[in-house]
Amino acid sequence: MIDWKSNLNVDEIKVGDVLPAISIPITLQRLVMEAQGNYDLSLMHHDKRAALTVGASDAFANTFFLMGMYERLLREWAGNEMRIKRIGNMRMTSFNVVDDVTTFSGSVREINDEVVTLDMESRVGDRQTSSAFALIKL
Amino acid sequence: MASEGWGKQGSWEETESFVGKTIAISKGVDAVELGSVRKWLEPKHFFPPIHSDTAAAKAAGYRDVVAPRTMAFTYGLPAYFDAETPLEKLGDTPRQIPVPAIFDLPAPCGQSFATSVDIEFFDDMYLGDRITCTHKLKEIKYKTLSVGEGAFLTQEDTYTNQNGDLVALAELVIFRFNASKKDD
Q1: Is B45 a domain residue?
Q2: Which of A4, A40, A54 sits opposite B49 (nearest CB)?
Q3: Do both B112 and B145 map to the same domain?
Q4: Best CA proximity match to B158, nearest among B124, B138, B133, B137
Q5: Shared domain check, B60 and B136
């Protein structure tokens, strides 16, 4: 359980700190709920036949899901008072498909006053599926 | 993440004529509200109280319940169908979310994939806010990759609320190309 009454202070972190990783199963139900929730109803994100036509092995998570999971990674680490300023250069390097378990992780690259730069990525096993950096204010 | 046989067709000269110009405007179909926020959070198994509870949001320095930052993408999306949209027929191409750099911008290419997304956040989104996204073509960079010859198109998306206040500024880079022949 996340303690939402706790907020991270910049004095409590240092360069190299690792965020608690989040693993989430990519089930077809999750993808269908995600399509409903983020309103990207493109078939490739919940229909295997459509996904096969673009080179994926099954329905795959979309950009909005990955962005949202990076937001979750940051929010659960830093708390409610943290402000996300930017999620930058998010690159999608391979698919997150049905029956994958995707793990989101991150670490502190730089601290400049209250503004923190973090490197983040998602992986399925040894395979990276996306990467990005974030700027947040604590 | 490539897509075959889609995108508006035209010459590179036509593509270049759009640099710096607005290529589409998307008016978000739904205002920010608790139900859609919950449906966005649920599949991510993500339940911070600032997105559902006024007291928690105020304690964290917001003026009221606030939407997740990256939900700007969702609240900037138009409806798939409305009263003026003819009912689709079986076999019609399914509707997609707006990606004007592919669907509204002419280019001599039949394939495309997104290479990167970047988003910077400004004003928060509160219950009742309505988001509009203005899409511009920022730049074209011609490139030949292993998949084929084409160009990187940078689409700049400006998200504003009903007061015209800036909510987010995003850049989506799309590579539009024609696949190399296998014997090339």
Answers
A1: yes
A2: A4
A3: yes
A4: B133
A5: no
DSSP character for A60? Answer: B
Asked if residue B23 and residue B104 are part of one domain, the reply reads yes
Give residue A19's region: left, alpha or beta (phi > 0; psi -120 to 50): beta
Distance from CA of A20 to the nearest CA of B (A): 14
- Orientation of helix A28-38 relative to helix B34-41, angle to 10°: 150
Q: How many CB atoms lie within 10 A of CB B147?
A: 14
| Tens digits of pLDDT across chain A (138 residues) | 899 999 999 999 999 999 999 999 999 999 999 999 999 999 999 999 989 988 899 999 999 999 999 999 999 999 999 999 999 999 999 999 999 999 999 999 999 999 999 999 999 999 999 999 999 999
For residue B153, the domain's CATH number is 3.10.129
Residue with tokens 């498909």: A97
Asked whether the beta carbons of residue B2 and residue A41 sit closer than 8 angstroms, the reply is no
Pairwise CA distance, residues A75 & A93, whole Å: 24
Which CATH superfamily is A15-137 part of? Hotdog Thioesterase (3.10.129.10)
Q: Is the ipTM of this complex over 0.90?
A: yes
Q: Show residues of chain A in contact with B57, CB under 8 Å.
A: 80
For B115-130, letters b (16+ CB in 10 Å) and e give bbbbbebeebbbeebb
Distance from CA of A66 to the nearest CA of B (A): 10
User: How many domains does one find in chain B?
Assistant: 2
Instruction: Find the domain containing B134 and state its range.
Output: 3-28+68-179
Least Cα separation, residue B61 to chain A (angstroms)? 7
- Reference A17, options A135, A114, A91, A111; nearest CA is A111
Instruction: Answer whether residue B99 is part of any domain.
Output: yes
Domain assignment present for B60: yes
